């Protein structure tokens, strides 16, 4: 009997360790992908007409979007913890849906404002020898 119980505890500990390791690994993979995509966006911004004119605000556009996303996340978390308190299990799904709606609306407004402020009204992107003129509102719409 003791052998079965100690074996059960070992199996539980092994499963918990596997799950914690998998979650930590997934988190590091997501952060790595996020960092790589941010660097790629900065490289693309540096080869556009922003780099020629040395418009540093426009070149930092990918970082501004990420920064605004962090602020929107914090505001959405504030809504979830202070304004929509969950008192029963039935309230979990509506609270998550409210968080999704709030974050979507706030991020849409934030991306529009950042695009309007940080980007010039039109700019040129060089794509393998061809030039393409892009408007700031089109870039904001592409992010949505």
UniProtKB/TrEMBL annotation:
InterPro entries per record: PPase-energised_H-pump
Intracellular or extracellular location(s): Endomembrane system
Membrane topology (UniProt): Multi-pass membrane protein
GO cellular component terms, A-Z: endomembrane system; membrane
EC number: 7.1.3.1
Any Pfam family the entry gives: H_PPase
The keyword Transmembrane helix is annotated on this UniProt entry: yes
Molecular-function GO term, any one: diphosphate hydrolysis-driven proton transmembrane transporter activity
Keywords: Ion transport, Magnesium, Membrane, Translocase, Transmembrane, Transmembrane helix, Transport
Segments traversing the membrane: 31-52, 59-80, 100-119
Domain of life: Eukaryota
Keyword Cell division tagged: no
Protein name: H(+)-exporting diphosphatase
